[in-house]
Amino acid sequence: MSEAATLEAVTIDSEGDFSYPEAYAHDAGVGLNEDTLDYISNVKGEADWIREFRKKALKTFESKPNPTHWASKDLENIKFENIRYYLSKGQKPTRSWDEVPDDVKQTFERLGIPEKERKYLAGVEAQFDSEAAYSNVKVELEKEGVIFVNSTEGLREHPELFRKWFGKVIPTGDNKYSALNSAVFSGGSFIYVPPGVKVKHPLQAYFRINAENFGQFERTLIIVDEGAEVTYMEGCTAPKFETATLHSAVVELVAMADAKIQYITVQNWSNNVFNLVTKRAIAHENAEVRWIDCNIGSRLTMKYPGVVMKGRKARGEVISIALANDGQHQDTGAKMVHAADETTSNVVSKSISVGEGRSTYRGLVHIPKHLKGCKNNTECDALLINSNSRTDTYPAISVRGNQHATQHEASVSQVSEDQIFYMQQRGLSEAAAMSLSVNGFVNDLVREFPMEYSVELKRLIDLEMEGSVG
Fold first, then answer.
1. What is the pLDDT of residue 15?
2. How many independent structural domains does the chain possess?
3. CA-CA distance, 182 to 173, in Å (whole number)?
4. For the chain, what percent of residues have pLDDT higher than 90?
5. Angle between helices 430-446 and 451-465 (to 10 degrees)
6. What percent of the chain is predicted at pLDDT more than 70?
7. pLDDT at 103
8. Last residue of a domain, one of 250, 282, 303
9. Is the backbone of residue 297 left (phi > 0), alpha (psi -120 to 50) or beta?
10. Is 242 contained in some domain?
11. Residue 467 has what DSSP assignment?
């Protein structure tokens, strides 16, 4: 989600485990072929080039096997022929919550989205299954030339901006799931910030899956021009179904010279969701891109935000927290590609494995020989809650030449029985002591989140830790 801005909307926990009866105006049916793509293009009224783009992507998707070097066993459980690739109620994104269809509005009100917009957000997009139901940005930002719309509107109303970078940061053939997204993408955000404009308050997108046997494939493109700044946050939830649900987003970020982008994700998928997301940024001269990522829930998450530091003195950073509970595998990490002199990257990853949960850090750092003065720092820390929890670390650091500085640190620890006993002697229950230990483990990273989100994140961790003791 798409896997979609700051997502305080993440305010969800078990509160996100609900759904409403389906009454869709547009349903592409089950299965994937060219007829499915024609149906999507016809409903959206797309230009011929987009239709052809989709069909070429479908052929690429069909030609690529599932990744075999990791998580292959879980991926075999995805039955592409059983998935519904496009569902919408026929709504157009409205600028007023009062105009959102009642059942959709009820969902987002229950998640607290309108209230958050009123309190501290500069703009909000709310997507329900395949399409945005609400999209709005504050008037003062519009006057400064800031564009914040869904991807369908972006393609239709701003083709000169959108098409220039669409599919350029993440090519269709990057991997099987980027190809799938390119074939059936719908929804997601398009943001453009003009030169020198600094958006003071976050923009938020919230992605909600309501239907069973559904795939959500949002496509987000953010372009921040020279000297401009923006913070975008996204949140994702889905009800718990017995059948598998697929979320496969593509996110492309472009930071021009001296620009700054901060992209924050807090996801709390139910444990039937396969969350297979491709996220990448290009940072030009002296630009900065920060990915702040929190992954809770899902059956399997595979997500490795990346930064290609294309300009001199560009900076890239990934700060991530992953929590894997019983029956869950969080396979997360980062990709840092240095492509110019004096570029700097920083990766800090913390994972928690509960019960029989499995967390994996998978990272890539690449510094070619011809560059000078590049720096990288990578830290991977894992916490095991139970004796049968599992964690793995697979760093791939390729540094050529002798004019660079790199460092890598990894640690694995287990919650100390003595520590839990000590806290119990001071009046805490075992569960409260466990939650305190886990929150202490991630506290330095939680501080990187905006205040409203850090509170929600701690609450989500507490909920996940319930029943983990013993």
1. 44
2. 2
3. 9
4. 48
5. 150
6. 78
7. 55
8. 303
9. left
10. yes
11. T
Q: Is residue 65 part of a domain?
A: yes
Same-domain status, 161 and 288? yes
Q: Which DSSP state fits 80? A: G
95 found inside a domain: yes
CA 105 to chain centre: 23
Mean pLDDT for the stretch of residues 211-238: 86
Residue 23 has pLDDT above 80, yes or no: no
Query: Residue range 53-63: average pLDDT?
Result: 97
Residue 210 lies in a domain: yes
Return the pLDDT at 72: 65
Q: Residues near 453 by Cβ (< 8 Å), separated by ≥ 6?
A: 6, 7, 8, 10, 233, 264, 266
* 109-113, 332-336, 441-445: range with lowest mean pLDDT: 109-113
Q: Quick one: pLDDT at residue 454?
A: 73
- Span 323-345, pLDDT tens digits: 998 889 999 999 999 999 999 99
HEC sequence for 394-447: EEEEEECCCCCEEEEEEEEEECCHHHHHHHHCCCCCHHHHHHHHHHHHHHHHHC
Indicate if 295 and 422 belong to the same structural domain. Answer: no
Q: Is the pLDDT of residue 124 over 90?
A: no
More confident residue, 136 or 401: 401
| Domain-ending residue, one of 254, 288, 303 | 303
Q: What does residue 57 show for φ and ψ, rounded to 5 degrees?
A: -65, -40
Residues 6+ apart with CB under 8 A from 266: 7, 8, 10, 233, 234, 235, 294, 296, 449, 453, 456, 457, 460
Residue 290 contacts by C-beta under 8 Å, 6 or more apart in sequence?
Answer: 260, 261, 262, 263, 316, 317, 318, 319
Judged against a pLDDT cut of 50, whether residue 79 lies above it is answered with: yes
Domain interval for residue 446: 418-470
For residue 373, give the DSSP letter. Answer: S
CA atoms within 13 A on the CB side of 316: 35
Q: How many Cα atoms within 13 Å fall on the side-chain side of residue 263?
A: 30
On whether the CB atoms of residues 202 and 231 are closer than 8 A, the answer is: yes
What are the structure tokens assigned to 15, written together? 């509160």
